[in-house]
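Re: [ENG-882] Designed sequences occasionally contain unexpected residues at chain ends

Forwarding the minimal case from QA. Structure tokens:
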């Protein structure tokens, strides 16, 4: 590990293979915040370079600068040895820098070919030449992309490969990936890392942002740690442990994880029975996306649902929240049938909700933090008093949440959009936990959250569980699912197909169960039927 103040990079001439990207003295200020302060990074060509740091450290800002989405206030960018001015992503792409965002930007009802060529028709047209180019790239890097597949039929990992291919198709030699593994199961992560190794063996360069420190150490050639907007260390992966890396990020020791204890009672808090929901698919066929779901979550219990994204988890959550009308079945909360109640009443009855897509359901991005405090809880204290909205109550309580949940922000008047992703998530969790829910529906509660904040959030959920909170946990982070759940069930094609014991199952076994394979540790509730 190099000292914090030491210059990060050597002059290009000294670096074998050359330098793909060199950032020098990058500073970027926003009102009340210095997001990047005098950052230096040298990215060697043909390597995987990881960028780690706690929430709000300045990673995304730095990458947006490299991708031409934002202009630095100070500093220089050199790509392949040439100092450049980037005014837009198009500028960055023309210099060979491409970015794959965390939220995929593909059009579902188009084919892979259509998606890849959209906006890049000038390169190879939209016909045979384009198809041949896609196949060539796909074969060269082992991406396995089929040009005629409909994007809506693809799983998350395949969509990600299409996004990577799209960037390569446009001529990128340096790829920026923003938390690429957050949505993948372990087997898919391995496959992605194989793809990254292929890319670098062909001389391409990958820069990726991640909070999963074990993964970072397994795939990165170089690691840069950013803390509070500045580079604090340049780390040699082979000589560092995840714990050391975490400590470099947060600047202090992490609390050790708590041992498993059971707080599960006999009292049912949520009972779902015979829940069925149909949707019409692209061929006009009615298909059950939720098929006769039955589950009970008791007071003090965390029920984890494992499943590859798109197997009905989102629909289950939305049906329980009253955001979708099921075709059959009942939902009972604390003894009361809530099946026909509107979402707001369900929330007032004691359901807390951490949504999967925080931009669509969790936040009003252009509104200040204190207005976001009110969202979903308009009629409840401290946002409301004697039936009237109470902005000063909401403001005071937002200050409290910001302090208690360590939301890094210059104040509560800034917009939610100006918070870093992890800090947006902490605000939502703070808001939902503040209403002392009976049932918490938590979809990917720590997605995008740094390891320090993740430990805190897990502790907060465990603490509330000890006091009787029931939790429905959906997560792509298998360590989180196994670590937090008292009961684990596997969802596959709209059905709960198996139960797993969180005390004994490994992330790899759970990963195979999720992809539909039978794993030794699983008690199959009902075998998954093909072609339903
Ligand atoms: N458009 C903006 N306006 C105002 N402040 C911003 C804006 N974008 C980022 N910031 C601030 O800059 C700082 C760095 O944010 P950034 O998103 O770069 O962090 P990050 O390291 O990517 O965090 P995370 O891990 O949570 O995604 C934060 O304090 C954030 O609130």
């Amino acid at each position: 590990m190099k000292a914090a103040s030491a210059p990060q990079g050597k002059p290009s001439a000294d670096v074998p293979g050359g330098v793909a990207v060199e950032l020098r003295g990058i500073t970027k200020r926003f009102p009340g915040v210095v997001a990047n302060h005098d950052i230096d990074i040298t990215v060697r060509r043909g390597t995987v370079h990881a960028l780690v740091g706690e929430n709000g450290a300045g990673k995304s800002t730095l990458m947006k600068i490299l991708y031409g989405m934002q202009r630095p206030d100070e500093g220089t960018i050199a790509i392949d040895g040439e100092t450049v001015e980037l005014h837009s992503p198009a500028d960055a792409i023309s210099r060979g820098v491409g970015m794959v965002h965390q939220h995929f930007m593909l059009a579902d009802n188009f084919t892979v070919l259509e998606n890849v060529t959209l906006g890049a028709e000038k390169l190879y047209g939209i016909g045979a030449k384009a198809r041949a180019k896609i196949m060539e790239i796909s074969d060269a890097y082992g991406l396995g992309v089929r040009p005629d597949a409909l994007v809506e039929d693809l799983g998350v990992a395949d969509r990600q490969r299409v996004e990577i291919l799209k960037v390569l198709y446009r001529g990128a030699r340096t790829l920026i990936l923003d938390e690429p593994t957050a949505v993948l199961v372990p087997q898919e992560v391995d496959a992605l890392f194989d793809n990254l190794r292929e890319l670098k063996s062909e001389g391409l360069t990958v820069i990726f942002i991640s909070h999963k420190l074990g993964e970072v150490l397994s795939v990165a050639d170089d690691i840069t740690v950013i803390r509070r907007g500045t580079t604090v260390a340049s780390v040699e992966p082979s000589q560092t442990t995840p714990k050391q890396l975490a400590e470099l990020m947060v600047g202090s020791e992490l609390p050790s994880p708590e041992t498993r204890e059971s707080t599960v009672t006999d009292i049912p808090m949520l009972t779902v029975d015979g829940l069925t929901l149909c949707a019409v698919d692209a061929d006009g066929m009615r298909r059950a996306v939720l098929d006769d779901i039955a589950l009970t979550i008791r007071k003090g219990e965390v029920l984890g649902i494992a499943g590859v994204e798109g197997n009905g988890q989102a629909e289950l959550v939305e049906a329980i929240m009253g955001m979708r009308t099921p075709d059959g079945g009942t939902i009972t909360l604390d003894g009361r049938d809530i099946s026909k109640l509107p979402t707001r009443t369900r929330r007032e009855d004691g359901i807390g909700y951490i949504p999967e897509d925080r931009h669509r359901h969790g936040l009003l991005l252009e509104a200040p933090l204190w207005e976001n405090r009110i969202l979903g809880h308009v009629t409840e204290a401290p946002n409301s008093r004697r039936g009237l909205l109470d902005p000063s109550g909401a403001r005071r309580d937002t200050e409290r949440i910001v302090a208690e949940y360590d939301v890094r922000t210059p104040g509560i008047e800034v917009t939610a959009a100006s918070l870093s992703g992890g800090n947006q998530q902490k605000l939502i969790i703070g808001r939902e936990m503040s209403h002392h829910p009976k049932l918490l529906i938590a979809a990917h509660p720590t997605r995008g959250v740094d390891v320090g904040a993740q430990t805190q959030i897990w502790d907060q959920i465990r603490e509330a569980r000890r006091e009787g909170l029931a939790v429905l946990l959906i997560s792509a982070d298998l360590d989180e699912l196994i670590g937090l759940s008292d009961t684990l069930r596997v969802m596959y094609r709209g059905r709960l197909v198996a139960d797993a014991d969180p005390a004994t199952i490994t992330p790899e076994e759970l990963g195979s169960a999720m992809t539909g394979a039978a794993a030794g540790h699983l008690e199959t509730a009902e075998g998954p039927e093909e072609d339903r």
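QA comment: On inspection the terminal residues look reasonable. Residues 30, 33, 35, 53, 55-61, 408, 418-423, 448, 450 surround adenosine-5'-triphosphate (CB under 6 Å). Proposing we downgrade this to a documentation issue.
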